[in-house]
Amino acid sequence: MARPYPEMRKTMPTILIIDDDPDFLRLLGLWLESEDYRVLSSNNPQQGLELLDQESVDLLITDLRMPIMDGMAVLEAAQARDPDLPVILLTAHGTIPNAVEAMRAQAFGYLSKPFSNDELQTLCTAALAQRLAGRELSKLRADLRAQAGQSILHRSPVMASLVNEITRIATSQASVFLSGESGSGKERVARAIHEASARNDQPFVAVNCGAIPSELAESELFGHVKGAFTGATQDHIGLIRSADHGTLFLDEIGDLPLALQVKLLRVLQEGTLRPVGAKTEISVDLRVISATHQDIHALTTSGAFREDLYYRLHVIPLRVPSLSERPEDILLLAQYFLDRESQRLERNIPGFSPEAMDKLMQRPWPGNVRELENAITFAAAVTEKGWVSGEAIPDAGRQGGSSAFPPLQDAKTAFERVYLENLLRATDGNISRAARIAGRHRTDLYKLMRKHGLAPQLFKNQEDRDETP
């Protein structure tokens, strides 16, 4: 199923070229246009910079040595206007000091004239990928800041409608029944209702009815008195009384045994319960929110769920949409989980590469938000630093398996990228030397680099760069 994707993907990337050589400017512009880029150009640096104020530019390519204003001054002026704009410097004098100065000034990369089309295409592709990811990250961060402290993060209209409904019903004391697929966030919705209600300073107690062993369910829910059964060495108030004056969330209510459905019905009708072994009723005051991923109507029809209890619970029905119904929320939730994990792991992982965004948006997510959270936890664990790559996003059903090993294809891809990075560092970004060492043609190496979003200029003269004072 096609999914909405960030705005920038819908438009042709715009590249601004500044160079005082009119012939070179024209030839470079024609080639970039043939590669489906929108091109702006100027042989006057000051006029070129004015275009940044008038146009939405995704990448700036500028000559280093120009008589009116050199490339370093253009870089500085461009970054003052747009700090995230990637800048590629061109020079006919490819010296180490020039390279070191360019990289220290935060240029994305540099090319020495003459350069090949493959070199320029690789660097442009990597720079524009960074621009795309940076723009989407800025939007995501703005949305996360705007929704800070809210229980339900969303961009989608369907979730905005649900949030409005939560606000509307929160002041009521009526029971709420939540339906929706597993992992869709029903507990999160229940907590949001509690937090928006007058009971928000009282306990919120979540109970998974399907996770309590049947022989312990009555005692766990309703409590017991000392001596009620073997091992009952002290009174136990139970989960229902723990929610007194607050909200009780009964997840997977369809799994509650019939015998306990009768006792729960009495709690809802009379506001009282009797712990196991007790002789008197105890009053409780609470709001009940229940949920299930099962067809509650079918359970009622078959007799597996009491009809009278159904009507007591099903006063205000709310349906929680699946993640496939709210694709606009995928990247927002993914960024939230990534920020949380990168902070926990103490790693600098700012966001997702365009390839990772594509993978996140195209995946069907049958396990909903829970599956997405698990996938991002996995991706953060295998990303040491920098942007999360497409390869770091596990394929459906592969994360969190019983094996500690990643799938073979994932391992091959990860090794390939690390190998290329180490190879380029060892050869200072020299493609000819790297190709000889790898036993591959230069063209093959460029294809692999493009696949992994790597540019040779980022690895050139690393030692000189580190040692230069």
UniProtKB/TrEMBL annotation:
Residues carrying 4-aspartylphosphate: D63
Keyword terms, alphabetized: ATP-binding, Nucleotide-binding, Phosphoprotein, Transcription, Transcription regulation
Sequence ranges assigned to domain Sigma-54 factor interaction in this UniProt record: 152-381
Record InterPro entries: AAA+_ATPase, AAA_lid_NorR, CheY-like_superfamily, Homeodomain-like_sf, HTH_Fis, P-loop_NTPase, Sig_transdc_resp-reg_receiver, Sigma_54_int
Pfam families according to UniProt: AAA_lid_14 (PF25601), HTH_8 (PF02954), Response_reg (PF00072), Sigma54_activat (PF00158)
UniProt GO MF annotations: ATP binding; sequence-specific DNA binding
Top-level taxon: Bacteria
SUPFAM superfamilies per the UniProt record, alphabetical: CheY-like, Homeodomain-like, P-loop containing nucleoside triphosphate hydrolases
Protein name per UniProt: Two-component system response regulator GlrR
Lineage, uppermost ranks: Bacteria, Pseudomonadati, Pseudomonadota, Acidithiobacillia, Acidithiobacillales
